[in-house]
Amino acid sequence: MARKVFVTGIGTDVGKTVASAILARAWKMDYWKPIQAGHLDDLESDKVKRLLTDTKSKVHPTHIQLTQATSPHFAAQHDGMEIQIQQLEVPITERPLLIEGAGGIMAPINSQQTMLDFVKHHHCEIVVVSRNYVGSINHTLLTLEIIQQQQLPLIGIIFNDNDYYQSIPFITNYAKVQVIGEIPLLKKIDLDTINSIASTFYKPDWVKE
Fold first, then answer.
1. Is residue 15 part of a domain?
2. Total structural domains within the chain
3. The domain containing residue 127 runs over which residues?
4. CATH number where 158 lies
5. 207 within domain boundaries
6. Is residue 129 part of a domain?
7. For the chain, which ranges sit under pLDDT 70?
8. Residue 202: predicted pLDDT
9. Is residue 208 situated within a structural domain?
10. What pLDDT does 188 receive?
């Protein structure tokens, strides 16, 4: 069975999609975003596909597309449905699979289940994406704490944006977490830029050269 790596954020708009594209390139993984909430004119999976065009990584179709850019449980309710984790069947892959979540680790999928339950159900390892802003230390440490409390396999963390507030040294020292990589504030996002950053990322032993 292929390895499953779940990418979650410390909240919304922290750069999970770009981080996922870089990570998929660095670790030679396929990509899948099971739930897309809003922005259906340009899906996250389409953005990632453009950033992986020169690789062998496969981008799998998004399973559920919701019209509202809100938490999945509310967006689904608006669209007259309820999402069940059992519906979200993981694609069968030969390569490791990167799964991009919607929002943070406690974002609700339905009235009873969150992204955390998805991770447990599908036995995923976790990568956290943090963005450097005032308040991000608190949000990052709380995200890491809930993952560690649940004794889920945490691979490490990716930091997005320039570290204006010196968040990174405090978070890494306090949480004792593996730093996978840092993504600077990007003026442009193209294949060369993504490939350059991917080359600096930490690679676990299972990543094949």
1. yes
2. 1
3. 4-198
4. 3.40.50.300
5. no
6. yes
7. 1, 209
8. 97
9. no
10. 83
Catalytic residue among 4, 16, 28, 33: 33
Checking 38-44 for CB contacts under 8 A at 24+ apart, the result is 38/66, 38/67, 38/68, 38/69, 38/70, 38/75, 39/69, 40/65, 40/67, 44/17, 44/100
Say what the pTM is. 0.94
Q: Does the annotation mark 16 as catalytic?
A: no
Q: Using H for helix, E for strand and C for coil, what is the string for the chain?
A: CCCEEEEEECCCCCCHHHHHHHHHHHHCCEEECCEEECCCCCCHHHHHHHHCCCCCCCEECCCEEECCCCCHHHHHHHCCCCCCHHHCCCCCCCCCEEEEEEEECCCECCCCCEHHHHHHHHCCEEEEEEECCCCHHHHHHHHHHHHHHCCCCEEEEEEECCCCCCHHHHHHHHHCCCEEEEECCCCCCCHHHHHHHHCCCCCCCCCCC
